[in-house]
Design goal:
This protein is mainly alpha-helical and 126 residues long. The protein is 59% helix and 5% strand. It contains seven helices and two strands. Helix 4 packs across helix 6 and helix 4 crosses helix 7. The longest helix is centred in the middle third of the chain and has 17 residues. The chain is elongated.
Length: 126
C-alpha cells in the first residue's frame, strides 16, 4: 500500500493547482513537496486558527482548585501533560475531547513548557 501511495503522490506533482489541492485534501500529499507559496498559505491558516480559535489558559478560583485549565472548561493542563506522558498523541487527545481545538492543545503545551515545576508538582499530588 505504501508503494502505491507514493506512486499516486508522484503522479500528481506536475498537475494543475486544482488537482493538487484535491490531492492534498485526501491526505495523499507530502508536506516536503509543497511550494513555498503553499507553505506560506498553510502558515497563514494556522496563524488565523491560533489567534481566533483558541480559548487560552486560565486559573479561576473555585474551579478545579484554581489550577490552570483551558478557558471556560474544567480541563486542567496537567491532565493533558499526564496523558501525553502516558503515550497519548495530540490526535488521540482531540478525539477524546472533541470540544477542544488543536489551538487549545498548542496553548496547553506552551503553558506546560513555561511552568514545568507547577505541572510536575500537581501531577505528583494527583
Amino acid at each position: 500500500m505504501a508503494r502505491s501511495r507514493i506512486f499516486f503522490e508522484d503522479s500528481f506533482m506536475d498537475a494543475p493547482d486544482v488537482i493538487r489541492k484535491q490531492v492534498k485534501r485526501t491526505n495523499c500529499y507530502r508536506a516536503n513537496r509543497i511550494t513555498p507559496d503553499e507553505k506560506a498559505e498553510v502558515i497563514q491558516i494556522l496563524l488565523k486558527t491560533l489567534s481566533s480559535g483558541s480559548r487560552g489558559i486560565t486559573k479561576t478560583p473555585g474551579v478545579m482548585v484554581g489550577e490552570a485549565c483551558i478557558d471556560k472548561t474544567r480541563l486542567p493542563v496537567w491532565l493533558f501533560v499526564s496523558l501525553r506522558e502516558q503515550g497519548a498523541t495530540d490526535a488521540e487527545l482531540l478525539k477524546f475531547y472533541p470540544h477542544i481545538s488543536a489551538a487549545d492543545l498548542v496553548n496547553v503545551w506552551a503553558y506546560a513548557d513555561a511552568h514545568p515545576e507547577e505541572i510536575v508538582k500537581i501531577i505528583r499530588k494527583n
